[in-house]
## 1
Amino acid sequence: MAAPTHTAATAAPRRTPRGPLRVRRPRRHGSETLAAWLFLLPSLAGFLVFTAGPVIAAGVISLLDWNLFSPPRFIGLDNFARLGPDDTFWSALGNTAYFTFVSVPLTLLVSLGLALLLNQGLRRMAVFRSLLLLPYATITVAVAFVWVWLYIPHDGLINAVLGVFGIDGPAWLISDDWAMPALIVMSVWKSFGFGMVIFLAGLQAIPQQLYEAAKVDGASPWRTFREVTLPLLSPSVFFTVVTSIIGSFQVFDQALVMTDGGPGTSTTTLVMYIYRTGFENYEQGYAAAQSMVLFAFIVVITAAQFLLQRRLVHYDL
Amino acid sequence: MSASFSRRALLKGAALGGLATTGALSGCSSGPPPGAATWSMWSSSPEEQRVWTDFGHYVERRMHIRSASTLTPSDGYPTKLDLQLVSGTASMVTALNGWLIPTYASRGAHRPLDDLIAADPDFDLDDFYPAIRSISSFAGRTYAIGFDVAPTVLYYNKTLLERNGVDPPSPTEPMSWDTFRHLAIELSKPKDQYGFTCSPTIDDLVSWIYCAGGNVVDGDRDTSPLDAPEAMQAIHYVVDLFTKDRATPPIDNLVTQNASGAALANFLQGNVAFMQNGPWQVLNVRKASFEWDIVPFPAGPAGSRPRVSGSSFAIPSGVTGDDLDLAWRLLKTLTSTGALDIYARAGRNNPARLSAASAFEPPPANLGIVQRILKGEVAGGHPFDVTTNWNRVRLLLAQDLPRAFLGQKSAGDTIDGVMPRLNALMRQHRDAVRQAT
């Protein structure tokens, strides 16, 4: 390996008597720094105004008793204390977890399966890819309305098809047992296109030589998939898992349109409950406390995923 | 011309572009012209929009001032109004559905109007039906002035009844519950024809509860009387129509069935004999392809006392000074006999003023019973009793009641399960009333 060449921009680290290596920062021209800040400014402003600001505001509001119209009153952590005995909150959290931990793996499996199929070099692959991406590109509310129609117990298409096979289909969206699975099926159908595109891009980046080498070594298709495809696809899987879990924890629109959270609270998701607490029950402080808990859950789960990535995700080809 | 730019020129251009965009956006911010009479209202159809446009013209003719109305689809109206009230951008006069008046009044979002009414000799509150005056008041004070008011009535499909050899019900004598149930069962041939339709919600159930002598809210106690024998009799009666008698179209999904228009959609299909609904649906039912009319709501043990509901205009608390004077003049104009004539003549609903009542005209032939019920000449009505946290009561019951209507849980178990949470809400309501007074 050739010895590295030192330039002004890549100055050698200098060891100081007090501590470890100290890297001298490359000197930048003032106008370049200004340019960098100017180009970063819109994104930074957007982040501060639309992301960091509301998170901080929610944190502050969670300490208040505020019904929107009367002046807010500071009540410390009382809103968080209310969460403990609130059965609906825990039920909504359970429903959200159920939705997430069933729908995300299912979506990944379907996405991966379709991506592998499309990666076989089918003719008119672009057409298939576009068609399969359509559900993802369609507005959720519109899709949800169509699925409500498909799920109608008496005359719906799904039960009509099941009837052909002699199966008496359930009352999907109005059944305690079937409402959440019905939502999950719709959600998998709606979102597999996103994962499929990511996986397809990942699959196409894997060098063909590795497959040829595996073939020469006599590896079976399953072993090739396990030893070559899956490890090299792990960055795509990681990205899809992280984004899908975050998205699933925030599920709202399809449940609102398809079941309104019912029957009972069997499909009430956490975001739906937060919305109702804040804007239908006029309890902004309590809604903010709930959203802070949701935020904490998402941060913990995402952090855990990033810790796991060190062991499971391979970035080197 | 050279297409090359120096980096400095590019940066300068980007900065100038940003400034120009910011300036343009701020310049584009639109609002009502200064001094305009601003008012907000829900509007979900072109027909409704036409009525409010006519209201706007009427305001301009009468007040010689620019009318600036904000129209929002009814589903999104309360949320938009909340945000406008909080941000101080609400109109001078805002329309309110009657069941929300205690919610806003107890939170100080709208101002009481008693001082303005007392100081204005031109304004006659006695010209408004007592029911809408009750609905528009909270803790003994008037918070809004009504523009419509009406009792729930029973629509019936004349064609279907004739086809089945059933005489039309009396337009003056309400049917008894027994007669109604018998007819509903007789006229039901499931999958092809049904006897009755309503939504499985408290908004519709409450009329039956009032007719049985029950209520959801009791002013004297800290607990809800929803589990009292009177209310339970009504709940069992309606739930049985759904689950035992199979006299109603099956519930296919909870979202549309909970929406107010679901019963209307069932009725308009032409295979349902009776529908419980308000005269505000007359305009839509006129599109039906069959003969129909309305009759008083069936009489239970306490008589025919269905829910009477209405809507009103109110002034937000933030409106003060000269704006308050303008707001009061605008509110008076929007609820004047002339404006309500426009409203009633368009068939929107029964007007809140007695002097505008004659403008709400047939068809259907029996439409006049609406005013006779409000005057107590035929059957009767019961103003919709709500709490300051009715949103929460509604949501609680919206989650649990459908299970009874679907037969997943008995009516008794459903109400038993709801009562502790409902009573907690009632205590919260009492506290809110105490604090507000």
## 2
Amino acid sequence: MLRRSMLFMPGNNPGMLQTAEVFGSDSIILDLEDAVSLGEKDAARILIKGALKTFNYGTTEVVIRINPFSTPYALEDIDVMARLKPNAILLPKATPEDMKKLDEMLTKIEKEEGFEEGSIRIHALVETTYGVETVYETIKMSSRVDSVCLGGEDLAADLGVARTKDSEELFYARTKVVNACKALKIDAIDTPFTDTNDEAGLLADTIHAKKLGFTGKLSINPRQINTIHKVYSPTADEISWANRVMYAKDEAEKEGLGVFSLDGKMIDAPIITRAMNTLNTARVIGLIK
Amino acid sequence: MKILKPAKAGTLESNDISIMLMPGNNGIEIELESIVEKQFGAEIRTLIENTLKELGVEDVMVKAIDKGALDYTIKARIETAVTRAGEM
């Protein structure tokens, strides 16, 4: 599934829950954690339960961010939310130990509810220094993990440094998360850009993260979705290049050539894979048939 | 299900409804203010009453201030308030 954008929505806000799909993000994250005050956790669970039973969010991935295991809320969050069969749970402050606990709880609930085993997926929100250092083990702990999302604000606090506009302080974490995700063939989702009024800054930050290997970006405001999609959607030039690569590949195969060139550059298996991925993404988002 | 103590749920923001429950002795009594009172007042009262009955509440005084909540929100806020007001 395509996850260019994953948009946070406060779990205790009825207006946001009923319009969650209209902003066009690939995933929506209904939040029980930071966006819900301590005294309203019960209300948010009940409201999300009602929303999921009422609205059809179509092809948008529905993800629930639970509270961390270090709080008194996590167990009830999982017990109530998993029985609603969301597409996925977002595990905050993810570690290998907490991933194991969450996976075991989901397996138990799936059995009790008669859901297919493994059908509730997990996204791991890595936002601590320990989480960064153990990210590979965290992903390996459960076959349910579809992505790692990077949480830059909490991570900077754990590092004891300030967040900066160019996110220099996150460079190690970003590359480590991307490498672990690529090694295990799952999505790597970048930290949100928190200045919602700075569109140019968001664009630059998203382009930079894409260059590092991220496949999508968390979002804290619906206004950010178009910019993120613009970066993570193939351009007309990229689609044209991919089509030419595939055409040249077909021609080379007819001539029995293993390696061939296009515009003076050698085309081999990794380039062909990149071209195929570009065309596949373009198809999924309807840019080509 | 008995309402043991006063309890509130919901907010006064748009698309929400503020619900206050208080112990009562005369069945389900509802006081409603709504921005859509003329169009949907009767339906909202019926929904509140039916939701309370489904939760097993027989005696309660309800003060509701509606800011255009959909049914799912009204039901959720009632359920939250009932949970906070006593044992489910």
